[in-house]
UniProtKB/TrEMBL annotation:
Family statement drawn from the similarity comment of this UniProt entry: Belongs to the glutamate-gated ion channel (TC 1.A.10.1) family.
Boundaries of every Ionotropic receptor 75a N-terminal domain copy: 217-306
UniProt membrane topology term: Multi-pass membrane protein
Protein name: Uncharacterized protein LOC108044066
Keywords: Cell membrane, Glycoprotein, Membrane, Receptor, Signal, Transmembrane, Transmembrane helix
InterPro entries named among the record's database cross-references: Insect_Ionotropic_Sensory_Rcpt, Iontro_rcpt_C, IR75A_N
A Pfam family assignment: IR75A_N
Leader sequence residues: 1-15
Record localization: Cell membrane
Amino acid sequence: MHWWLLLFLALSCEGLQERELLELELDYGLAEPQRTSMLQSSLILQFAQDYKHIPRITYFTCQKPHSQTDPVPSAELRNAFAAKNVQLIKSLYESELFVRIVLLDVLAQAAPSSGRRPGSGPSGGFSQTPSQAQSNSEWLEGVLRMEALKQIAVVDLACGPVSRRFLELASAKMLYSENFHWLLIEDFAWHGRTQAGEGTAKGEEEPPGQQIQATGDEDLPSIESFLGGMNLYMNTELTLAKRMSEAAHYTLFDVWNPGLNYGGHVNLTEIGSFTPSEGIQLHAWFRTTSTVRRRMDMQHARVRCMVVVTNKNMTGTLMYYLTHTVSGHIDTMNRFNFNLLMAVRDMFNWTFVLSRTTSWGYVKNGRFDGMIGALIRNETDIGGAPIFYWLERHKWIDVAGRSWSSRPCFIFRHPRSTQKDRIVFLQPFTNDVWVLIVGCGVLTVLILWFLTTIEWKLVPHDGSALIKPKGGAPPRHNYQHQQHQEQVEAPVRPITAVSVVVDEEKIEEKGEENDDSAPIDAGTLWHRCYQKLNKYIKDRKAKQKKSPERVGLFLESVLFFVGIICQQGLGFSTSFVSGRCIVITSLLFSFCIYQFYSASIVGTLLMEKPKTIKTLSDLVHSSLKVGMEDILYNRDYFLHTKDPVSMELYAKKITSLPTTKENEADEDEPVDPNPASTDPAKSYRDIVHSHETGAHAKDSAASNWLDPETGLLRVKHERFAFHVDVAAAYKIIAETFSEQDICDLTEVSMFPPQKTVMIMQKNSPMRKVISYGLRRVTETGILSYHFNVWHSRKPPCVKKIETSDLHVDMDTVSSALLILLFSYAFTIMILGTEILYSKWQYRLIIRLN
């Protein structure tokens, strides 16, 4: 029967189901090639729809099939191949699947047994023949493209050397990945022989892991041994369908390899069968497990792993250093990540081939160095240390899952007081309270001055004063009263110093009156000015002698209010009830103010000091010195950051500015994010690169790049802020800081906590293995266990009131001392002014006399 008769039979039975149609065609007693073509088309259709559920199929066949019994294909064999292709197209078209049929004859030149020109024979109008100018590699890339959607690749092994050549090309291009689901069909009808292992009954399940031993072939190696040299991996989705007898029965095998470059061996495991009546029947253990779970034994495959070690003083072997907690605060996240990988290794039964480096991988001279560079150059398979997943690294590496959570921040002992705009002794009250107290004081002084002035005027001149300065009555009244008594008791008395003084004063007053009444003589301009100045001084002295009490009373009122505020005694007394009322009111007001003030001072000493440095900007503008942990990602951050606050921090506090003329004028000014004439980013880069060379700079002569022990030691003894990962800092703090020092610590972040990820080569087959292993490690609690082992907990702050907490340090008293020193200087300045004024007045009087 010719192939066109088979096509007519298929087109005339459109109303029947596919399986019924196939059974009907097989019952007609068709020839073996025609029966095989119908059987394979049904297998491909069910493989795509019922098993894989993938609607994209690429079928690789040929126009000149290969047969062991007939190396030169006959016309009947070619017609059977053409009929098979027509039936496949028709079946897939009815099922609305996307299918491409690709002829492999273009690869006949590379096959050793090909003796004909590739591309000869009819193409049927649906084959794709690449240009002869393209290489085989370019042709393969054009046929099988790495797309987002998965696709099925079906290969007919009846093409012989051409199909083997195609499988080798796919192996060289690493196409046996999870993106391509392969189906290799090896049929008894085309090879004309039976295989060993044919005695297994249809539908009988074999235990997983049973492998098929292939028999030898004089022309071509068996497909089992041939697949042993292919680049198959853990994520390979390859199914081998073998028809071992004339029965319409295919045995399905799952084919995978832990990795040819890892030293693994190919595994062929029977997973089920296919018959036209029952379709694809898979074993129960295969249906209920995932691909990764079925391949958890990698047979001690040797996987290359590179770890990052920054500790220069590492002792012992590399494996011992990575697995033991000696100096666990150094390389914490690298050692934590490697211990997680060890748990995944034990789960999948592989072994490590370790190597080390000092860098995670940063761009240096246009190329990645360190661990990422080794992955790109295929010097290692997976990365043993986690990295920060940045956009520039995305196209070079693959990520398996999250590992370590890094939280570096600035750690410092918060100063007791960081306010610069207010004196410490003014802090218990707010500004409006102090203004109100001053306003009440001014009002009290004015009222008291008014009352004492009225009282002074109402005092009789007989000496019985109602208001008396401390120590007795006013001197003038006392003198007049004494003079009156002396005149009554002793009319004739001897001349005393007092009488002389009185006589001199009278004579002086008389002379002054005579001088005042004398007219100003005309003379020179200098003489007239001198006489007017002399007259002004005499008038001024006369007014002061007439009313000295008013000025004295005002000053006494001022001193009275200041005294009661400072809890001091009175400088004078008063006899009026109104004056006593204002005194009592002022004393009560002073008592209340003093109680609130002293209670606030005590409460301030007992309570926790307020934290005023909360952001990075506050830290930049504080008086604290700043240091950074000398680690690569910190240096790389400053080389690439665009944050203006971080740039200002680096330029002002971490590294000193270069001595250039442009920076000498404004080196203390903050960085302006939007300057009009200069570019801040450019000037910042100049500052960075003047001290750094890439991310690996180690020149710390002009900067504050320190190791964790040194930096935290300065935090303990100085006003110093140190940027370090808390995983390394907490262990050192718990061992070296006191409880009070721990309570004083404050943390300020420069950038948010960073999530790190595990990495491997781009399109690595180990990605799914490590991803699944990390999820299992997380679910079972192994990740939490290792996190508690390697990540030190934050030291607790134990609040205790000690004697040292009530001590007032120099920072608190400094403002009072400054006020006292300022008053000393001001007093000396006033004293000097008074001395100069008295000397000038004395000389003026001498000149006038």
